Amino acid sequence: MLEDIYGYIPFLNFDFNAFLNAAGIDPFSAMAYLFVHGGWLVLIPTFWYMLKNGWLDYIQNKASGKREWILLRVSVPKASEQTVKAIENLFALLAAAHSAPSWAETWLEGATQAVLSVEIASIEGQVSYYVYCLQGLRDLVESGVYAQYPDAEIDLVEDYARQVPSEYPNENWDVWCTEMTNVNPDPYPLKTYIEFEDKVSGEFKGPMAAFLEVFSRLGPGEQIWYQIVMQPTNQSDFRKRADTVIKKLKGVKDVPKTTLLEHLISIPLNVFFEIASILVSSAAGAGEKKKEATEMLKMSPGERLVLEAVERKASKIGFNCKIRFIYVAKKEMMKKSRAIQPFIGAIKQVNTFNMQSLKPSSVVGVNGALWWFRDKRNNERKSKMVRAYRSRSGWTGLSKFFLSTEELATLWHFPILLQVKAPGLRRIEAKKSEAPANIPFG
After folding, report:
1. Chain centroid, CA 302 distance in Å
2. How far apart are CA 429 and CA 151, in angstroms?
3. Alpha carbon of 2 to those of 8, 12, 14, 80: distances in Å?
4. Contact in structure between 126 and 180 (CB atoms under 8 Å)
5. Interatomic CA distance for residues 315 and 306, integer angstroms
6. Angle at alpha carbon of residue 54, lines to 49 and 58, rounded to 5°
7. pLDDT for res 293
8. Could you tell me if residue 435 is inside a domain?
């Protein structure tokens, strides 16, 4: 009876001598013998992975096509006296867009966590601020903006990114594009707006002033697009990464936790050794705490500053993000030195060597260092990047990295208009006010 059962289980009926004989005569016969006698089992996880992800892509693309997206243009009063802290508060409010779908919603309905996108675009020197979101999130966005800027104007507009070609090479247009990527693990923070404020005069000169100067210098036929795609998250994965970095900076080793199975296995052991183990563990724990305190005392002022900055970022709300930059222009008007180097220079203001930096990716976007089929590959990258920008894709390109609300407010905020003189900036020239209550009628 058992022999009959074994006959139906291929890997239990494997004849190793027959396999070696087949291998000595014909390798293909040996491979066929191996496949028939259980080798096909290795393919089951591969097929399952392909089937699972194929279904998920299909149902998510189908559900995504039914969503209604909108683009909102935001203009703030010229006399606004709000600080960058107001934008940090706005981003904290937008984190309420987090809504993790259930298992059934994910696998049966194709639900995904929706992204938001905050953008700045210069169309021939006319600079405007935008927020791209689902129609269902419009109230959240508008309430957040009005809470910080009561006199702001928010308009529903057509997508500026669809006014230029998306396929390259093109007869009339050319484009340069890139994604900015983090140099160090994302628990390390960027230099934020708090560090751009003069401690004596209180004057604020952040990187956005340089951005707007670059954007406002464009001429006819030129456009610059700057986009930060933000995916709300519960931050559990980021906190684990941050905890690992914090322990590393403190010089603390991760102690593996004892599992329930290990506790059950240890029950039959001698009581004496169990008690001894507990005592040793307690002593080890006390030793680790003492070692941690000693390591903290050994830290230099710079090392303590890094540790404090990482802990500060870990305490903040944030998003998983992608940063894109596109310079697109008519071929006869395109001048890369007018846009690319000044933008990269403006971004470098938030970089630090001992913590975090942003740099243009060589993997995504235009790369002049490619060896083989350079023009063809760069044109494919241009087309892919423009399409990703248009769709505000959170998946195309590099992996997302975590930015706190403080970092996001540094990289995207309405200008301190009394300090930024960019002439092309779209803004409201005066605050609105209610009509006097004693106006006569009739």
Report:
1. 28
2. 11
3. 10, 11, 15, 85
4. no
5. 14
6. 155
7. 59
8. no
Position 251 confidence tier, pLDDT thresholds 50, 70, 90: confident
Is the domain of 328 the same as that of 208?
Answer: yes
Same domain, 300 and 404: no
Strands 318-330 and 401-404: antiparallel
Q: Which residues contact 381 (CB under 8 A, 6 or more apart)?
A: 177, 364, 365, 366, 367
pLDDT tens for 58-72 read 777 777 777 899 999
Grouping H, G, I as helix, E, B as strand and the rest as coil, residue 432 is: coil
* Mean pLDDT computed over 27-56: 71
Reference 308, options 241, 254, 355, 251; nearest CA is 355
The domain containing residue 19 runs over which residues? 2-37
Within a domain: residue 271? yes
Say whether both 150 and 180 belong to one domain.
yes
Q: Single out the residue of 323, 415, 322, 409 nearest to residue 91, CA to CA.
A: 409
Largest CA distance in the chain: 109
Q: What angle do CA 56, 61, 62 make, to 5 degrees?
A: 100
Give residue-wise pLDDT tens across range 191-250.
999 998 877 776 777 788 888 888 999 999 999 999 999 999 999 999 999 999 999 998
- Is 254 within 8 Å of 288 (Cβ atoms)? no
Cα 203 from Cα 194, distance rounded (Å):
11
| Distance from C-alpha of 127 to C-alpha of 400, rounded to nearest angstrom | 27
Token pair of 121 as six digits? 């675009």
264-283 per-position pLDDT tens digit: 555 555 555 555 555 555 44
> Is pLDDT above 90 for 437?
no
Provide the β-strand partners of residue 325: 178, 226
Domain assignment present for residue 44? The answer is no
- Judged by DSSP in three states, 141 sits in helix
pLDDT tens for residues 399-412? 999 999 999 999 99
Give the whole-angstrom CA distance, residue 108 versus residue 37: 36
